[in-house]
Amino acid sequence: xxxxxxxxxxxxxxxxxxxxxxxxxxxxxxxxxxxxxxxxxxxxxxxxxxxxxxxxxxxxxxxxxxxxxxxxxxxxxxxxxxxxxxxxxxxxxxxxxxxxxxxxxxxxxxxxxxxxxxxxxxxxxxxxxxxxxxxxxxxxxxxxxxxxxxxxxxxxxxxxxxxxxxxxxxxxxxxxxxxxxxxxxxxxxxxxxxxxxxxxxxxxxxxxxxxxxxxxxxxxxxxxxx
Length: 226
Ligand code: 5RP
What we know:
By secondary structure, this protein is α/β, with parallel strands linked by helices. It folds into 2 domains: about 5-125 and about 200-220, Rossmann fold; about 130-195, 2-Layer Sandwich (Alpha-Beta Plaits), CATH 3.30.70.260. Strands 2-1-3-6-12-13 form a 6-stranded mixed beta sheet. It has helices at about 5-15, 30-40, 55-60, 100-110, 140-150, 180-185; strands at about 25, 50, 75-80, 85, 90-95, 110-120, 130-135, 155, 165-170, 190-195, 195-200, 205-210, 215-220. The structure holds ribulose-5-phosphate.
């Protein structure tokens, strides 16, 4: 099976998580586009959707789904989105499609994050995929130097302005062995809008497309603090 077919498989499988009458969170990317295609065929009546990008909003409207402002929503039962990498605890790298900030905002509103991906995205350690970071342009130099000091090789993504008007740096060469600690640290750097480590907003469930079908992984909830 091609990667595209594996994406279509999990896009279709994710429709089972959609509940009529509820608000749905919808992410961004080629796998999510397959999910939206499958959703169109189901014709579920949703209360509306909160979307993580202008592109997804346009696709949702095109199939007759009302797109809601995140500020008008207090909670979203289910958020369906892809990932660039996911580890065995549900931590992810996201932002390959430059939508990471809105994705994290929607994930923060969501009770469950259903990650849909082809099997190539499952990794032991995050970081082979360059880490996307949304940065305010004035801080590009300083943020890049901080990544170099950490052992990474930052590259500014040319020709891309995010939906929020910012720049993306892709950081190569990081081995993200402690996603939560690294996410927390990078979040402190002035000028960083969002880092593409989804550690605090990890997946609850992953649907992985494999040649033998959809493999479902359920991640344990984080232990309550002592
Ligand atoms: C967009 C994302 C996507 O979820 C991620 O890049 C995966 O994309 P695709 O489904 O096209 O492989 O984080 O910002």
